[in-house]
Amino acid sequence: MAKIVIREEVFRMAPLFIRVVLFAQGVRNFACSDELSGMLESVAAMQASRPGTTAEEYLASWDQAHRLFGSNPNKYPPSIRALYKRAVQGKEIPFINSVVAIMNIVSLHNLVPCGGDDLASVNGDLVLGIATGAESFRPLGRPELFERPDPGEVIYFDSANSNVMCRRWNWRNGDMTKLGSDTTDLVVNIDGLPPVSPESLVNIGIQLSDLLRSHCGAKVQMAMLHRTCSEWALDRTGSSGHAPLVAA
Description:
four-stranded antiparallel beta sheet, single chain, alpha+beta
């Protein structure tokens, strides 16, 4: 049974880091949805209309987290900063599919990084840890390219084959576990650092769970990982619901 694992070395850098994990099964991932497209456009317009200082505290916490492992957030921006920048510049946020749209809606509305992976393409545990530099990465949309992460970089990877699902914590996703129209079972990660509280992140997880249920027909389980509860075994026989939820 696959597990979601956050290694202690990540918490040594960021002791207050929390991650809400959603395990969604039976997903119907549609190529288009007028309702979700409208929601995505609305939340982007909402962020574009707000003063920049409103968002900066949330974005700056991720800039600082990236600097802790030697990454330059100006060159390799955290995903939420890149998404927010597109919104405030009035650039279109493409509709890839229903699940990706839902993640972008929730991420942009709450200013938290969010990403997902197709479990059919994962062979081992899904681990957030520190790169040795021997792992392999193929960027999203460019599967013909082969890269290795920098030693010391925070990566999200498959423990069975060292395939990197996301580089630089939440900078760039990999192609091998991308979410597509044939995705049925997936894991979504929602990451939090202060000023985001554990209670707030749980509520964000519930928002995303409800959207997956209502728009994709998913059965969803949810848990929160933190320094004293850093692993969660995925239960493929579990029933739909917000349990097992581990509070910080």
